[in-house]
Amino acid sequence: MREPPALYDHGPGTPLDVDRAFYGRLAQEVEARRLVERFVIPIRSGRAWTVPAGHLCRIVAVEGPQVGDFNAWNRHNPRERFWASRTRQLHGTHVTTFDRLWSCLPYLRPMLTITNDTIHYGIDEDGAGCHDLLGTRCDPYVHKLLDGEEFDFSCHSNLVRAIAPYHLTEFDVHDVLNIFMVTGLRRDGRYFAKASPARAGDYFEFFAEIDLLCALSTCPGGDLSVPIWGPNRGDPLPTCRPLAVEVYQPAPALLAGWSPAQAVDYRGGHGLRSP
Ligand SMILES: [Zn+2]
Questions:
Q1: Digit-coded pLDDT (tens) for 184-203
Q2: Residue 83 is part of which domain span?
Protein backbone atom coordinates (compact mmCIF):
# COMPACT_ATOMS: atom_id res chain seq x y z
CA MET A 1 0.00 0.00 0.00
CA ARG A 2 1.36 3.38 -0.98
CA GLU A 3 1.37 5.81 1.91
CA PRO A 4 1.15 9.59 1.71
CA PRO A 5 4.37 11.43 2.55
CA ALA A 6 4.95 12.41 6.19
CA LEU A 7 4.12 16.04 6.86
CA TYR A 8 7.43 16.79 8.61
CA ASP A 9 10.76 15.91 7.04
CA HIS A 10 13.51 14.44 9.24
CA GLY A 11 16.08 14.18 6.45
CA PRO A 12 19.78 15.00 6.78
CA GLY A 13 20.41 18.71 7.19
CA THR A 14 16.80 19.55 8.14
CA PRO A 15 16.04 21.25 11.50
CA LEU A 16 14.62 17.91 12.76
CA ASP A 17 17.76 15.93 11.91
CA VAL A 18 19.74 14.76 14.98
CA ASP A 19 23.44 13.98 15.20
CA ARG A 20 23.11 10.22 15.64
CA ALA A 21 26.86 9.72 16.08
CA PHE A 22 26.89 12.19 19.01
CA TYR A 23 23.90 10.64 20.82
CA GLY A 24 25.06 7.13 19.97
CA ARG A 25 28.38 7.77 21.74
CA LEU A 26 26.55 9.11 24.80
CA ALA A 27 24.48 5.92 24.90
CA GLN A 28 27.37 3.53 24.37
CA GLU A 29 30.20 4.94 26.47
CA VAL A 30 28.63 3.98 29.78
CA GLU A 31 31.86 3.23 31.64
CA ALA A 32 32.99 6.84 31.48
CA ARG A 33 29.78 8.20 33.02
CA ARG A 34 29.23 9.02 36.69
CA LEU A 35 26.06 8.11 38.59
CA VAL A 36 24.78 11.33 40.17
CA GLU A 37 21.49 10.14 41.66
CA ARG A 38 19.39 6.99 41.84
CA PHE A 39 16.04 6.33 43.49
CA VAL A 40 13.09 3.99 43.16
CA ILE A 41 9.51 5.20 42.80
CA PRO A 42 7.21 2.77 44.65
CA ILE A 43 3.98 1.52 43.09
CA ARG A 44 1.09 3.99 42.71
CA SER A 45 3.18 7.04 43.59
CA GLY A 46 5.18 9.82 41.97
CA ARG A 47 8.38 11.76 42.33
CA ALA A 48 9.98 14.83 40.76
CA TRP A 49 13.71 15.39 40.23
CA THR A 50 16.07 17.65 38.31
CA VAL A 51 18.36 16.73 35.43
CA PRO A 52 21.03 19.35 34.58
CA ALA A 53 21.56 20.17 30.91
CA GLY A 54 24.16 17.82 29.46
CA HIS A 55 23.27 14.94 31.80
CA LEU A 56 21.61 11.61 31.01
CA CYS A 57 18.59 10.13 32.75
CA ARG A 58 17.35 6.56 32.72
CA ILE A 59 13.87 5.30 33.64
CA VAL A 60 14.30 1.61 34.54
CA ALA A 61 11.65 -1.11 34.75
CA VAL A 62 13.46 -2.65 37.71
CA GLU A 63 11.04 -5.50 38.44
CA GLY A 64 9.25 -5.94 35.13
CA PRO A 65 6.50 -4.23 33.13
CA GLN A 66 5.07 -1.00 34.50
CA VAL A 67 3.75 2.12 32.77
CA GLY A 68 5.29 5.46 33.83
CA ASP A 69 3.57 8.79 33.14
CA PHE A 70 6.23 11.43 32.49
CA ASN A 71 6.17 15.25 32.61
CA ALA A 72 9.02 17.74 32.04
CA TRP A 73 9.53 21.47 32.59
CA ASN A 74 12.31 23.98 32.08
CA ARG A 75 13.89 23.91 35.57
CA HIS A 76 14.01 27.73 35.67
CA ASN A 77 10.63 28.50 34.09
CA PRO A 78 7.72 26.06 34.55
CA ARG A 79 5.67 27.85 31.90
CA GLU A 80 7.97 26.12 29.42
CA ARG A 81 6.94 22.49 29.50
CA PHE A 82 6.71 19.40 27.35
CA TRP A 83 4.29 19.71 24.41
CA ALA A 84 2.98 16.25 23.61
CA SER A 85 0.93 17.10 20.53
CA ARG A 86 3.69 18.99 18.68
CA THR A 87 6.13 16.20 19.57
CA ARG A 88 3.63 13.69 18.16
CA GLN A 89 3.45 15.62 14.89
CA LEU A 90 7.18 16.10 14.56
CA HIS A 91 8.19 12.53 15.48
CA GLY A 92 5.27 10.13 15.75
CA THR A 93 2.57 8.67 17.97
CA HIS A 94 5.27 6.71 19.83
CA VAL A 95 8.84 7.79 20.46
CA THR A 96 12.12 5.93 20.59
CA THR A 97 15.89 6.41 20.27
CA PHE A 98 16.88 9.69 18.50
CA ASP A 99 13.40 11.22 18.91
CA ARG A 100 13.09 14.38 21.00
CA LEU A 101 10.54 15.86 23.36
CA TRP A 102 9.75 19.47 22.41
CA SER A 103 8.61 22.37 24.58
CA CYS A 104 5.44 24.45 24.24
CA LEU A 105 5.03 27.96 22.83
CA PRO A 106 6.43 30.55 22.92
CA TYR A 107 9.63 28.48 23.15
CA LEU A 108 9.65 25.36 20.96
CA ARG A 109 12.98 23.71 21.55
CA PRO A 110 14.09 20.14 22.15
CA MET A 111 14.00 19.60 25.93
CA LEU A 112 15.54 16.16 25.70
CA THR A 113 16.75 13.62 23.15
CA ILE A 114 16.12 9.90 23.64
CA THR A 115 19.47 8.10 23.59
CA ASN A 116 18.56 4.48 24.33
CA ASP A 117 15.26 2.57 24.30
CA THR A 118 15.79 -1.11 25.08
CA ILE A 119 12.18 -2.03 24.22
CA HIS A 120 12.64 -1.90 20.38
CA TYR A 121 8.90 -2.49 19.94
CA GLY A 122 8.43 -0.89 16.53
CA ILE A 123 4.88 -0.94 15.15
CA ASP A 124 2.94 -4.20 15.63
CA GLU A 125 0.25 -5.90 13.49
CA ASP A 126 -2.45 -3.72 15.08
CA GLY A 127 -0.53 -0.53 14.37
CA ALA A 128 0.39 -0.16 18.05
CA GLY A 129 3.69 1.18 19.34
CA CYS A 130 5.45 1.65 22.70
CA HIS A 131 6.08 4.89 24.67
CA ASP A 132 2.73 6.52 23.99
CA LEU A 133 2.01 10.08 22.94
CA LEU A 134 -1.60 9.40 21.90
CA GLY A 135 -3.09 9.30 25.36
CA THR A 136 -2.73 11.26 28.53
CA ARG A 137 -2.52 10.54 32.26
CA CYS A 138 -5.23 8.81 34.25
CA ASP A 139 -6.91 11.27 36.62
CA PRO A 140 -9.39 11.31 39.51
CA TYR A 141 -11.95 13.31 37.52
CA VAL A 142 -12.29 10.68 34.81
CA HIS A 143 -12.49 7.99 37.52
CA LYS A 144 -15.34 9.88 39.20
CA LEU A 145 -17.02 10.44 35.83
CA LEU A 146 -16.82 6.87 34.60
CA ASP A 147 -17.12 4.75 37.71
CA GLY A 148 -18.17 7.10 40.50
CA GLU A 149 -15.04 6.28 42.48
CA GLU A 150 -12.97 8.72 44.57
CA PHE A 151 -9.42 7.57 43.84
CA ASP A 152 -6.38 9.62 44.94
CA PHE A 153 -3.56 7.62 43.36
CA SER A 154 -4.11 8.14 39.65
CA CYS A 155 -1.17 9.49 37.64
CA HIS A 156 -2.49 13.06 37.67
CA SER A 157 -2.67 13.06 41.48
CA ASN A 158 0.67 11.26 41.82
CA LEU A 159 2.25 14.01 39.68
CA VAL A 160 0.49 16.75 41.69
CA ARG A 161 2.00 15.42 44.93
CA ALA A 162 5.39 14.90 43.24
CA ILE A 163 5.78 18.52 42.11
CA ALA A 164 4.40 20.18 45.26
CA PRO A 165 7.94 20.47 46.76
CA TYR A 166 8.86 22.56 43.68
CA HIS A 167 5.91 24.93 44.34
CA LEU A 168 4.04 23.67 41.30
CA THR A 169 0.39 22.64 41.32
CA GLU A 170 -2.27 20.67 39.47
CA PHE A 171 -2.30 23.39 36.79
CA ASP A 172 1.33 22.62 35.94
CA VAL A 173 0.68 18.93 35.22
CA HIS A 174 0.35 18.45 31.46
CA ASP A 175 -0.18 15.79 28.81
CA VAL A 176 2.33 13.05 29.44
CA LEU A 177 4.63 10.68 27.66
CA ASN A 178 3.45 7.23 28.74
CA ILE A 179 6.76 5.37 29.04
CA PHE A 180 6.62 1.57 28.55
CA MET A 181 2.95 1.81 27.45
CA VAL A 182 1.78 0.14 24.22
CA THR A 183 -1.14 1.89 22.54
CA GLY A 184 -2.70 2.47 19.16
CA LEU A 185 -5.79 3.60 17.32
CA ARG A 186 -8.32 1.12 15.94
CA ARG A 187 -9.54 1.47 12.37
CA ASP A 188 -12.53 3.38 13.73
CA GLY A 189 -10.11 5.81 15.39
CA ARG A 190 -10.71 4.66 18.97
CA TYR A 191 -7.82 4.40 21.39
CA PHE A 192 -6.62 1.08 22.76
CA ALA A 193 -3.85 -0.10 25.08
CA LYS A 194 -2.04 -3.41 25.42
CA ALA A 195 0.06 -4.96 28.17
CA SER A 196 3.47 -3.37 28.57
CA PRO A 197 6.25 -5.51 27.04
CA ALA A 198 8.95 -4.23 29.42
CA ARG A 199 11.06 -6.83 31.16
CA ALA A 200 13.08 -6.40 34.35
CA GLY A 201 16.08 -4.24 33.45
CA ASP A 202 14.57 -2.59 30.38
CA TYR A 203 15.11 1.15 30.31
CA PHE A 204 14.31 4.38 28.50
CA GLU A 205 17.23 6.81 28.54
CA PHE A 206 17.42 10.46 27.49
CA PHE A 207 19.87 13.35 27.31
CA ALA A 208 18.80 16.70 28.83
CA GLU A 209 19.15 19.51 26.24
CA ILE A 210 18.28 22.15 28.88
CA ASP A 211 18.08 22.14 32.71
CA LEU A 212 15.02 20.00 33.42
CA LEU A 213 12.56 19.38 36.19
CA CYS A 214 11.05 15.95 35.54
CA ALA A 215 8.24 14.05 37.24
CA LEU A 216 7.11 10.46 36.89
CA SER A 217 4.09 8.52 38.15
CA THR A 218 3.99 4.75 38.50
CA CYS A 219 0.55 4.27 36.97
CA PRO A 220 -1.99 2.52 39.25
CA GLY A 221 -2.99 0.57 36.12
CA GLY A 222 0.38 -1.22 36.51
CA ASP A 223 1.41 -2.93 33.27
CA LEU A 224 -2.08 -2.46 31.76
CA SER A 225 -2.57 -6.21 31.29
CA VAL A 226 -5.81 -6.03 33.31
CA PRO A 227 -8.70 -3.94 31.91
CA ILE A 228 -9.28 -0.95 34.20
CA TRP A 229 -12.58 0.20 32.67
CA GLY A 230 -15.77 -1.45 31.49
CA PRO A 231 -17.58 -4.70 32.23
CA ASN A 232 -14.42 -6.84 32.25
CA ARG A 233 -12.49 -4.60 34.60
CA GLY A 234 -10.27 -6.33 37.08
CA ASP A 235 -7.90 -5.33 39.85
CA PRO A 236 -4.58 -4.17 38.36
CA LEU A 237 -2.86 -3.96 41.77
CA PRO A 238 -1.00 -7.30 41.33
CA THR A 239 0.46 -5.91 38.06
CA CYS A 240 1.85 -2.74 39.70
CA ARG A 241 5.65 -2.51 39.96
CA PRO A 242 8.14 0.19 40.91
CA LEU A 243 10.28 2.17 38.45
CA ALA A 244 13.82 3.38 39.11
CA VAL A 245 15.32 6.70 38.01
CA GLU A 246 19.06 7.14 37.43
CA VAL A 247 20.82 10.41 36.56
CA TYR A 248 24.30 10.28 35.06
CA GLN A 249 26.96 12.81 34.17
CA PRO A 250 28.67 11.74 30.94
CA ALA A 251 32.41 12.09 30.43
CA PRO A 252 32.96 15.80 29.58
CA ALA A 253 34.87 14.91 26.40
CA LEU A 254 31.68 13.41 24.95
CA LEU A 255 30.00 16.84 25.07
CA ALA A 256 32.56 18.59 22.85
CA GLY A 257 30.75 20.90 20.46
CA TRP A 258 27.36 20.58 22.25
CA SER A 259 25.53 23.49 23.88
CA PRO A 260 22.06 23.71 25.50
CA ALA A 261 19.13 24.04 23.08
CA GLN A 262 17.85 27.54 22.34
CA ALA A 263 14.21 28.58 22.02
CA VAL A 264 13.14 29.51 18.49
CA ASP A 265 13.99 33.19 17.91
CA TYR A 266 10.67 34.37 16.45
CA ARG A 267 10.34 38.14 16.89
CA GLY A 268 7.36 38.89 14.68
CA GLY A 269 5.01 39.69 17.58
CA HIS A 270 2.12 37.88 15.86
CA GLY A 271 1.49 40.88 13.64
CA LEU A 272 0.30 42.99 16.58
CA ARG A 273 1.22 46.65 16.27
CA SER A 274 1.04 49.36 18.94
CA PRO A 275 -0.72 52.54 17.84
ZN1 LIG B 1 -1.99 6.25 35.08
A1: 999 999 999 999 999 999 99
A2: 36-242
